[in-house]
């Protein structure tokens, strides 16, 4: 039994014709060859990290709510890093995604993971929020809450909710509220 296990292990390790030689007969040459080593893990693409956001790309802010006091990029989608796997259906696969965080380390990991999930155009912004360009500083900073009225949001009925103001753009407030599943989503209302 042990010989059979060892033979099976040898068959897995070696590739080629196994010599069928009666016991005790000397073998002139070993016809077995070592299996080629597995290919190396692919290195992340060089263009995974960019210095400035790609024009026309979706800006994805993966910072936590407490980090938003330093500002939010104009038009950015706000999804904390831990919730990105739960919100993949909200991200476009046919449009570039520029991921940013506070300094660029977390965004690199998220951009790399998004590429593994099929988002071929995901890149990380190496300088974080400071490399984004124009940002909107939240009015009143995190912790200022407003009540958002019930109504239609993106084609679905949204109940009245208390939301945290993250940015004020013109006469419109961008707020973060928790949806029915407990995930943070962005809603807009007039100031």
In summary, what is this structure?
This protein is of the alpha/beta class.
Q: Helical region count?
A: 2
Largest sheet: 5 strands, parallel
Number of strands: 15
CA-CA gap between termini: 79 Å
Strand order of the largest sheet: 3-8-7-4-6
CATH level-1 class: Alpha Beta
Residue runs with pLDDT of under 50 for 5 or more positions: 41-45
Q: What's the quaternary structure here?
A: single chain
CATH topology: Oxidized Rhodanese, domain 1
Structural class: alpha/beta
Percent in strands: 25-35%
CATH architecture heading: 3-Layer(aba) Sandwich
- Helix and strand pattern: HEEEEEEEHEEEEEEEE
Q: Count structural domains.
A: 1
What is the radius of gyration computed over CA atoms, rounded to a whole number of angstroms?
Answer: 27 Å
Tell me the name of the CATH homologous superfamily.
Rhodanese-like domain
Tell me, rounded to a whole number, the average pLDDT: 76
Could you explain the architecture of this structure?
Helix content is 13%, strand content 30%. The chain is built from 2 helices and 15 strands. By secondary structure, it is an alpha/beta fold. The longest helix has 12 residues, at 2-13. The chain has one domain: Oxidized Rhodanese, domain 1 (3-Layer(aba) Sandwich), CATH 3.40.250.10. It has a 5-stranded parallel β-sheet with strand order 3-8-7-4-6, with helices on one face.
């Amino acid at each position: 039994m042990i010989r059979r296990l060892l033979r099976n292990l040898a068959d897995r390790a070696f590739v080629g014709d196994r010599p069928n030689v009666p016991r005790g007969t000397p073998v002139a040459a070993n016809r077995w060859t070592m299996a080629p080593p597995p290919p190396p893990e692919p290195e992340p693409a060089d263009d995974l990290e960019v210095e400035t956001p790609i024009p026309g790309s979706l800006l994805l802010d993966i910072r936590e709510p407490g980090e938003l006091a330093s500002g939010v990029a104009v038009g950015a989608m706000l999804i904390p890093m831990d919730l990105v796997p739960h919100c993949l259906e909200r991200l476009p696969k046919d449009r570039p995604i520029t991921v940013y965080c506070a300094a660029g380390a977390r965004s690199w990991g998220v951009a790399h993971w998004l590429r593994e999930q099929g988002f071929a155009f995901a890149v990380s912004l190496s300088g974080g929020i400071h490399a984004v360009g124009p940002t909107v500083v939240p009015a009143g900073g995190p912790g200022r809450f407003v009540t958002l009225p019930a109504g239609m949001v993106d084609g679905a009925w949204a109940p009245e909710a208390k939301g945290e103001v993250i940015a004020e753009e013109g006469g419109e407030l961008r707020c973060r509220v928790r949806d029915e599943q407990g995930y943070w989503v962005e809603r807009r209302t007039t100031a």
